[in-house]
Design brief:
The complex is a heterotrimer. By secondary structure, chain A is mainly α. Chain A has 2 domains: about 70 residues, no CATH class; about 200 residues, Orthogonal Bundle (MetI-like fold). Chain A has 14 helices and 2 strands; from the N terminus they run αααββααααααααααα. Chain A has a two-stranded antiparallel ribbon with strand order 1-2. In chain A, helix 10 crosses helix 14. Chain C folds into 2 domains: about 45 residues, no CATH class; about 240 residues, MetI-like (MetI-like fold), CATH 1.10.3720.10. In chain C, helix 3 crosses helix 7, helix 5 runs parallel beside helix 10 and helix 11 runs antiparallel to helix 12. The longest helix of chain C is centred in the N-terminal third of the chain and has 36 residues. Classes of the chains: A mainly alpha, B alpha+beta, C mainly alpha. Chains in contact: A-B, A-C, B-C. The interface between A and B is medium-sized, with 18 and 25 residues.
Chain lengths: ~280, ~375, ~300
C-alpha cells in the first residue's frame, strides 16, 4: 500500500473540517438564532454567547406573538399540521396506489407494463409547473382548488414514482418460487400477496414510505400554486411568515427549525435506505 | 389416469422449451422425469402446478381440464429444488401452509404437522426459521410441506439436488417407502440416473427435443431407445464402437480385434450398414487365453469404482473398451487380457440416427438366444 | 385434497381474473397518470393560444406565435441564459465537491460514516426553507455572512439583493443543499467497487493519481453519470430556492424557466407565453431524462445483479 504522508493527513483534516463547517454552520447558526431575542440577534458584532430564550418557540406554539409594542396572531402551528396531514395522507394514498402496481410491474410482467412504469418515472422529471399551471384552472372548475384532496392527488407526482420504483425492486428480489409454493399449498392470490409478498417486501415499503414522506414534506411549489393560507404546509407558510411577522427573526428561525426537525429525525431513522431512495432504487446503500 | 398431458407446447419469448410433450401418470404411480438441465423438466412441473400456462395442449388432472384452473385449486403438493421455504415463517408455519389454506383448526394443524415432522425427523426444529435450518432440514421441511396437504399429485423438483451426498444416499433409500405410504401420484424430477432407477415406477427420459423414451427402469436400462439414453444410464458408461455387421453363414457378426462376434440374427437388415454397437461394461467377461471366441485386449488401466473394478483396455486397432467386474473377482491388471461378450446384452444403433435397432424376430434367432 | 375443494367455481372467472389481475393492480396508479396527462395536454394547447387570464375575450389560437416570438424576445434569451448558467454552475461545483468529499470519506470508519450522515442534513432540508435560512444569514442588517463579508473587506455586500451577486448567492444555497446528494451516491459507488484492481495496483506501486484516473474514475462512471444527469434535470428546473430567495429578482437576474413561467402566469396572467416556456423546458428535460433513464437502468441492473 501507498503510505499516507503526515502532510496529507493534515490536508485531509483541514478539508474535512472545512466541509463540516460549510454544511453544518447554517443549521447551527439558525438553531442559535431560534433561541435569541431580536435584541441579541441584531447585535453587532454577532456573538454565540447570549442568554437563550424559549419565547420564540412559545410564541409559535401558542400562536400568539407578543412583542413590546403589539400582539400578533400567527398560524404557524396550522402550517405544521398541514404539512403533517398532507405528507401522511399523500404517502398513505401513494402506498395504496403504488404497492399493488409495483407488484404488478415486478411480478406479473404484462403488456405495456414497462411503458407505464417509465411514464410514471418520467413524471418525476417533468417540470412541475407544466402540469400545475393548467391544473390551477381545472381545480377551480372542479372545485378542488384549495382542498386537501386536490393537493394529495397532486402530491402523487412525487410520491408515486418513488414508491413504485423502490418497492418494485424489493418485490423483484423475492424469489417467485416462494409465492408459487404458497399458491400451490392452496392459498388464493390475494392471501399470498398479503401473507408472503407484503411481509417480505416490508422493509422496502417502509423505506419508500419514509422517503416519500420526506419528499412530500419538503415540497414547496405544489402548495404555493394550489393552496391558500389555510391549507399551506410549512414550506410555503414560512415564506409568508417572513413578511407577516415583520422583523421577528428569532421566530422565523424557530419556525424553520420546527419545520426541518421532522425530516431530520426521519432521515436519521431511515438513513440505511436513503441512498436507495434518492437514486429511485438504482443504488443499494 | 390421474394426470395426463397432451401435446404441451411452451415457449419463453422465442425459445421453445416444450414442443408437443405428452405424458400420462397413473394413480399411485411414481414417474421420474430424468434428463439434463435445460430439458424443460422444471417447466413441465410448473405447468402441471399451474403457476405458468401452456401455449398449447391440455393438462388433465383426474379427468378434468386444467385450463384456467388456479394453482390453489389443483390439489397438488410441490417441493422445489431450491426449497422455496417462506423465510419469515418458522418450520411449523411452513409445513402448515397447505393446512391453513383449508381453515383447519389449530389443534388439528399442530397434530398433523407434528406427525409429518416426526416421520421426517425434523420435529426438534419445528420452531426454527428457515435460515436457522441446515440444508438437510430445509429439504425435509420442504418435503413435509408438500406432503402435509395429502395431495393427489406430488411434484418433486430435484429435491435432493442441494443436499449433501450422505443425506442424498439416505433419502434415496427412504423416499420410495415414504411415497408409497402417501399413495399419491408422484412426478419426480432428477438429473441423477441412480435416483431415477431407485425411485421410479417408470422413467421418462427428457432432453431438449422432448420426451425420448418412457418405460420402467429395467426397460430404459436394457433397451435404451437411442445412444444418448444408453449413455445416460449406467456407470461406467456403455462402450460404444463403430461397426459394420457382416453376414456369414450361421448368423450376423461384427469384428472386434479381428475376432468375429456373433450377434442377434435379427439384425440382418443392418448388414453392411454403418452402425454403433453398445456393450455395457458389465456384459463383458474376462476369460482365460485360448477360450472360444476370446477377444484379446491390451490392458491400459484399472480403477476401483464403488463396489466394482473397472478395466480400460484397447482392441487391436486401438479402440477403447471398458470392462466392469465385481471388486475382488480375478482379472488381468496389465499386459493382455481376453474377453467374451454376452451377446444378449449387445445393442446395435444406427450411426446416422442414433436410434437403437430392434432385432427382427426370426426362426433362426431362437437358437442364438434373443434378448427378452 | 378432495374434488370438492376445487369445484363450484366456473372456470371462466379464473381465466379472466388471471389475465386482468395486473391491470386491476396497476389501474389506480394508471388513473392518476391519466389525471396528470390531461393537464399536460392542456398545457400543450395553451402554448398554442393567445391566452391572457385578464383578457379572456381575446383568447384565440395563434399556433406557433408564442414560440416564434421567443426568437426576438430578450427576456426569453435571458431566461435561457440564466437557467443554463445556474444549471451548469451548480452541477459543476456539486460534482467536484461531491466527488472530493466522497473520496475523503471513502474508508468505512465510524467517523466517516458519522460525517456522511451529518452531511445529509442539508439534503433533508426543504430547499425553500434552506433558502430562508440563507436569507437570514445574508440579511444586510444582522446576517452573519454579511458580517463576515464586511470583515473580509466587502462593505455593503448585498448577496441576493444585488444583481451582481444574486446568482452567486442562490448557487451557494443550491450547492449547500444538493452536494450531499452527489456525495452520497458517489460514496455508495466508491464503496461498491471491487477491491482487486486497487490491491493489484498498490502491489505494483502504481502512483495514486494514475490509479484514480485509470481505475477509479472509469469504474465510477455509471454513478457519476446517474448523479450528474439527475442533478442536471432538477437544477435546470430549479424553482424553490430561487423563488423563496428573491422571487426571480432583483430585476430579471434570476428569472429561470419555472420562475419566469410562474410570474408570467400569476403576475402578467399571460397563460400562453407561460405554457410555451414550460414546453421548451419540458423538451430540454425530456432529452436529458431519456439519457438519464438509460444510464439509471443500466446501473440498476448492475447493482441488483450484484446484490
Amino acid at each position: 500500500m501507498n503510505t499516507i504522508s503526515p502532510f496529507e493527513t493534515v490536508l485531509r483534516g483541514i478539508a474535512i473540517t472545512l466541509v463540516i463547517l460549510f454544511f453544518m454552520f447554517p443549521i447551527f447558526w439558525i438553531v442559535l438564532m431560534s433561541f435569541q431575542t431580536n435584541a441579541t440577534i441584531l447585535q453587532v458584532p454577532p456573538s454565540i454567547f447570549f442568554e437563550p430564550t424559549l419565547q420564540n418557540y412559545r410564541g409559535l406554539i401558542t400562536g400568539q406573538l407578543v412583542t413590546d409594542t403589539s400582539s400578533l396572531e400567527i398560524r404557524f402551528m396550522s402550517n405544521l399540521f398541514n404539512s403533517l396531514f398532507l405528507s401522511t395522507a399523500s404517502v398513505a394514498v401513494g402506498l395504496m396506489l403504488g404497492v399493488p402496481a409495483a407488484y404488478a410491474f415486478a411480478r406479473l410482467k404484462f403488456r405495456g407494463s414497462e411503458d407505464i412504469a417509465f411514464t410514471l418515472l418520467s413524471f418525476r422529471f417533468a417540470p412541475p409547473l407544466l402540469v400545475l399551471l393548467p391544473l390551477t384552472i381545472y381545480f377551480q372548475q372542479l372545485g378542488l382548488a384549495n382542498t386537501y384532496g386536490g393537493l394529495i392527488w397532486v402530491y402523487q407526482l412525487i410520491v408515486l414514482p418513488l414508491i413504485l420504483w423502490i418497492v418494485r425492486g424489493y418485490f423483484e428480489d423475492i424469489p417467485a418460487d416462494i409465492e408459487y409454493a404458497y399458491r400451490i399449498a392452496g392459498h388464493r392470490w390475494w392471501t399470498t400477496f398479503r401473507k408472503i409478498a407484503l411481509p417480505l417486501a416490508g422493509p422496502g415499503i417502509a423505506a419508500a414510505a419514509l422517503l416519500a414522506f420526506i419528499f412530500a414534506w419538503n415540497n414547496f411549489v405544489f402548495a404555493l400554486v394550489l393552496a391558500s393560507a389555510d391549507k399551506q404546509p410549512v414550506t410555503v407558510g414560512a415564506l409568508a411568515f417572513i413578511t407577516a411577522s415583520g422583523v421577528q427573526y428569532g421566530q422565523i428561525a424557530a419556525g424553520i427549525i420546527l419545520s426541518i426537525a421532522p425530516t431530520f429525525a426521519l432521515a436519521l431513522y431511515a438513513q440505511r435506505y436513503l441512498v436507495e431512495g434518492l437514486s429511485l432504487g438504482a443504488v443499494k446503500g | 389416469m390421474t394426470l395426463a398431458l397432451e401435446k404441451i407446447v411452451k415457449a419463453f419469448k422465442k425459445d421453445v422449451v416444450l414442443d408437443g410433450v405428452s405424458l400420462s401418470v397413473g394413480r399411485g404411480e411414481t414417474l421420474v422425469l430424468f434428463g439434463p438441465s435445460g430439458a424443460g423438466k422444471t417447466v413441465l412441473l410448473r405447468l402441471i402446478a399451474g403457476v405458468i400456462e401452456p401455449d398449447a395442449g391440455t393438462i388433465m388432472i383426474k379427468g378434468r381440464d386444467m385450463e384456467g384452473v388456479e394453482p390453489e385449486d389443483r390439489g397438488i403438493g410441490m417441493a422445489f429444488q431450491n426449497f422455496a421455504l417462506f423465510p419469515h415463517m418458522d418450520a411449523t408455519e411452513n409445513i402448515a401452509a397447505p393446512l391453513t389454506a383449508r381453515n383447519m383448526n389449530k389443534t388439528a394443524i399442530t397434530e398433523t404437522v407434528g406427525k409429518i415432522a416426526r416421520m421426517l425427523k425434523i420435529d426438534h426444529v419445528l420452531h426454527h426459521k428457515p435460515k436457522e435450518l441446515s440444508n438437510g432440514q430445509k429439504q425435509r421441511t420442504a418435503l413435509a410441506r408438500a406432503l402435509a396437504g395429502e395431495p393427489d399429485i406430488l411434484l418433486l423438483d430435484d429435491p435432493l439436488r442441494n443436499v449433501d451426498a450422505k443425506l442424498r444416499f439416505e433419502m434415496r433409500l427412504e423416499l420410495p417407502r415414504l411415497l408409497k405410504d402417501q399413495n399419491a401420484t408422484v412426478i419426480y424430477v432428477t438429473q441423477d440416473y441412480k435416483e431415477a432407477m431407485a425411485l421410479g415406477d417408470r422413467i421418462a427420459v427428457m432432453n431438449a427435443r422432448g420426451i425420448e423414451q418412457t418405460g420402467t427402469p429395467e426397460e430404459i436400462y436394457l433397451t435404451p431407445a437411442n445412444i444418448e439414453i444408453a449413455r445416460l444410464f449406467g456407470d461406467p458408461v456403455i462402450n460404444l464402437l463403430d461397426v459394420s455387421p457382416v453376414q456369414v453363414e450361421g448368423g450376423v457378426f461384427i469384428t472386434l480385434s479381428g475376432v468375429p462376434v456373433n450377434i442377434d440374427a435379427g439384425y440382418s437388415d443392418m448388414v453392411g450398414r454403418d452402425c454403433i454397437i453398445g456393450i455395457r461394461p458389465e456384459a463383458i467377461r474376462f476369460v482365460e487365453e485360448g477360450s472360444a471366441e476370446a477377444i484379446p485386449l491390451t490392458i491400459e488401466a484399472e480403477t476401483p469404482l464403488n463396489e466394482k473394478t473397472v478395466t480400460l483396455g484397447l482392441t487391436q486397432n486401438g479402440r477403447e473398451i471398458m470392462v466392469s467386474r465385481p471388486a475382488g473377482t480375478p482379472g488381468p491388471s496389465q499386459g493382455t487380457g481376453y474377453i467374451v461378450i454376452d451377446a444378449n446384452h449387445i445393442h446395435l444403433f444406427d450411426r446416422a440416427t442414433g436410434k437403437r435397432i430392434v432385432p427382427v424376430k426370426t426362426q433362426a434367432a431362437g437358437s442364438q438366444g434373443v434378448a427378452p | 385434497m378432495s374434488d370438492a375443494t376445487h369445484s363450484g367455481f366456473p372456470k371462466r372467472r379464473f381465466k379472466v381474473s388471471r389475465r386482468m389481475l395486473p391491470y386491476v393492480l396497476s389501474l389506480p396508479a394508471l388513473l392518476v397518470c391519466i389525471g396528470i396527462l390531461i393537464p399536460f395536454v392542456t398545457a400543450v394547447l395553451y402554448s398554442l393560444q393567445r391566452y391572457r387570464l385578464s383578457q379572456p375575450w381575446a383568447r384565440k389560437w395563434n399556433w406557433g406565435e408564442n414560440y416564434w416570438n421567443f426568437l426576438s424576445d430578450d427576456s426569453f434569451w435571458n431566461t435561457l441564459k440564466v437557467s443554463m448558467t445556474y444549471a451548469f454552475t451548480t452541477v459543476g461545483i456539486e460534482l467536484l465537491l461531491g466527488l472530493g468529499i466522497a473520496l475523503l470519506l471513502q474508508k468505512r470508519t465510524k467517523f466517516n460514516n458519522f460525517v456522511s450522515i451529518m452531511l445529509l442534513m442539508p439534503l433533508m432540508t426543504a430547499p425553500a426553507l434552506a433558502a430562508l435560512m440563507w436569507k437570514l444569514m445574508t440579511n444586510p442588517g444582522f446576517g452573519i455572512l454579511s458580517y463576515f463579508a464586511g470583515l473580509l473587506g466587502f462593505e455593503d455586500f448585498n448577496w441576493a439583493s444585488d444583481p451582481q451577486t444574486a446568482m452567486l448567492t442562490v448557487v451557494i444555497v443550491d450547492v449547500w443543499v444538493y452536494t450531499p446528494f452527489i456525495m452520497i451516491l458517489l460514496l455508495a459507488g466508491l464503496r461498491s467497487l471491487p477491491q482487486q484492481p486497487f490491491e493489484a495496483a498498490a502491489l505494483d506501486g502504481v502512483p495514486r493519481w494514475f490509479v484514480f484516473y485509470r481505475i477509479t474514475l472509469p469504474m465510477l462512471t455509471p454513478f457519476l453519470l446517474t448523479a450528474v444527469l439527475f442533478r442536471m434535470i432538477e437544477s435546470i428546473q430549479q424553482f424553490d430556492i430561487i423563488y423563496a430567495m428573491t422571487q426571480g429578482g432583483p430585476g430579471d437576474a434570476l428569472t429561470v424557466f419555472q420562475v419566469e413561467a410562474y410570474l408570467n402566469f400569476f403576475q402578467s396572467t399571460n397563460v400562453g407565453r407561460s405554457a410555451a416556456l414550460m414546453m421548451i423546458l419540458w423538451a430540454i428535460t425530456y432529452f436529458l431524462s431519456n439519457i438519464f433513464i438509460k444510464n439509471w437502468l443500466r446501473l440498476r441492473e448492475r447493482q441488483r445483479g450484484e446484490a
